[in-house]
Amino acid sequence: MDILFIQQILIAALKTGTPLLLIALGELVCEKSGVLNLGQEGMMLMGAMAGFAGTYFSGSLALGLLIAMFAGTMMALLFAILTQTLNTNQVATGLALTIFGTGLSAFLGSQLVGNTIEGFQEIAIPGLSQIPFIGPILFQHDLLVYLSFMIVGLTWWVMHRTRLGLTIRAVGENPHAANALGIHVIRLRYGVIAFGGAMAGLAGAYMSLAYTPMWMENMTAGRGWIALALVVFASWRIGYLMLGAYLFGCSSIMHLVMQGLGIDISPNLLAMIPYLATVIVMVLISSDALRQKLATPMSLGKPFDPKLHS
């Protein structure tokens, strides 16, 4: 295995990990505020379908990107209305949202299956992309990969260096105390849920506008569920989340790598690697219950009614 081959694996891992990073980042911020949204897969599929449809009919990638984020946000706000205003169960509502998004995206996108577009192209950053080995890995990607780097940095800064980030974390730990201090808990949670939906839509747009510029039913292939496991794997830390996304991305392409190396294993078994890795990670995480309990936001998944705590 030469250096060039390793380089190509790392480039592919980064590209494959990008949609996981985007959707998991939105879920991490949601969970930091105490909201557990299991509808990531449905929101991501709606973003993928809407982004492709917007670009296909308008010819504009930028418009398709905005439409994808809008679709994800609208799906997320539906979840917010049900869980934050009507106080429905977050787990059941999230599962229903995934089923709804999966079916609706298939229905609305049925006439688009098989069509293709010219998606986002690679942009080599002058100078930086010429750095030996590292240059092509980090500085020769499409616009959405670069955008993911910026979003991660900005989100980390907001969560750890601003009052808004402190407020989000405070609400996630003790919404009753936050409410007593004058923080509008429900309004804040609406905002972070919308952010999570926008990130899910952006992740879906990456799938249909950059990774494979086409639309087909269920093209996210369970990435929304992997993203949920990834947040737990990262212990709700953005740095670990970024590393984990690329590790999961690497596991997703290992079946292609193994086939390229001539390993005589069924392709169907090799394609199971990322999902097997998810199960193994969750088992390892659950083995350290104390560490997991300390890292988990205290109010995660718990309903909050300001009328009962005013």
UniProtKB/TrEMBL annotation:
One GO term describing the cellular component: plasma membrane
Transmembrane regions listed in the UniProt entry: 6-26, 38-57, 63-82, 94-113, 133-159, 190-212, 224-248, 269-290
Compartments reported by the entry: Cell inner membrane
CDD domains per record: TM_PBP1_transp_TpRbsC_like
Topology relative to the membrane: Multi-pass membrane protein
Molecular function as annotated in GO: transmembrane transporter activity
Record keywords, A-Z: Cell membrane, Membrane, Transmembrane, Transmembrane helix
Xref: PANTHER family: ABC TRANSPORTER PERMEASE PROTEIN, SUGAR ABC TRANSPORTER INTEGRAL MEMBRANE PROTEIN-RELATED
Name the record gives this protein: Beta-methylgalactoside transporter inner membrane component
